[in-house]
Amino acid sequence: MNASIDPDQFTVPTRYWHHLENGAIQCDVCPRACKLQEGQRGLCFVRGRLNDQIVLTTYGRSSGFCVDPIEKKPLNHFLPGTSVLSFGTAGCNLACKFCQNWDISKSREIDTLADAASPERLATAAQQLDCKSIAFTYNDPVIFMEYAMDAADACREKNIATVAVTAGYMCDKPRQEFYRHMSAANVDLKGFTEKFYWKICNGHLQPVLETLEYLKHETKVWFEITTLLIPGENDSDEELNQMTQWIYEHLGPDVPHHFTAFHPDWRMTNKTHTSASSLTRARKIAMDNGLHYVYTGNVHDEKGASTYCSKCGTLLIGRDWYVITEWNLHQGRCPNCGETCPGVFEEHVGTWGAKRMPVRLANYSDKKQASHI
């Protein structure tokens, strides 16, 4: 927390902080509650104290832009088959040893933020690229919430949805403001023990559960849950039982849950890849506990990636990786029994497929198309 802050065009004041009696200022965006002296940054690296207030130092600056399939976020019940303009900044408010985007989330190099775009420019780019939504991803939008919210508002004016890909590690008041601006979210439920969150993520479980309950009971935001299964760490039958029973009891059976495969990275290179059989086992445990829509990810598993009617078992959306192979929904209902499939669907499925298209927004204006890399 000792890196100094240089004020520039990307630095903006924030709201959620307060002075302490010892002269420090406490950041109140997330439960980490960093206590900062003048010039210090929080653990997230992008929020820090400057001129006796907490500022965001990465407003309007990104580590890169890419057009992805929405299923990659992953969201399987939100505008299937459509494209999403994805971007992130740098830094993170957790310290997960297994981080799969560590080059971005753990970055302390401003050079990582090589591309820039105002909220209005982002919205225009998404519109001209025919994206149905934009996603705040790669690192957690909680730490750049002011930029994300302004971008969301600009997108709403152009009828473009906004997606937060987040660990859900956030305090109550900023949580309320943040999700007033979001259309959808995917929340990482990284494990289901306090030991795992503290030992592996340097955080706590309870604030994440509070975010999930808030989304379900206090908002209209469509959200799905992702759990990265790490062999020997969070993949025991007991923990998976406790997790999925809690989801059923507190969130209901219709919140989609994605179990995804771990690969050795960052500071957990000593672990093995997650096996396909382990993901299938987790999926079965979740469905046995009453969850209707459970998916496997980061492995080739057409059955585990597809959506089935919770009442009669009819295939509603067939998927092969990120490609939609079948589309049998009609007005969001099963064609066989008429059961509603929860989610945000258009009458016709998107056709973006599995394409990944990097985009450069530098020197972009409303009169120019975004250039593809």
Taken from the alpha-carbon principal axes, the silhouette is: globular
How widely separated are the two ends? 35 Å
Q: Strand order, main sheet: write it out.
A: 16-15-14-13-12-11-9-8-20-21
The CATH architecture category of the largest domain equals: Alpha-Beta Barrel
Helix count equals: 9
CATH-derived topology of the largest domain: TIM Barrel
- Mean residue pLDDT: 91
Low-confidence stretches: 105-113
Helix content: 10-25%
**Beta-strand content:** 15-25%
Number of domains: 2
Number of strands: 21
The major β-sheet equals:
10 strands, mixed
Subunit organisation of the chains: single chain
Under CATH at level 1, the class of the largest domain stands as Alpha Beta
CATH evolutionary superfamily of the largest domain: Aldolase class I
* SSE sequence, one letter per element: EEEEEEEEEHEHEHEHEHHEHEHEHEEEEE
Q: Structural class of the helices, strands and pairings?
A: alpha/beta
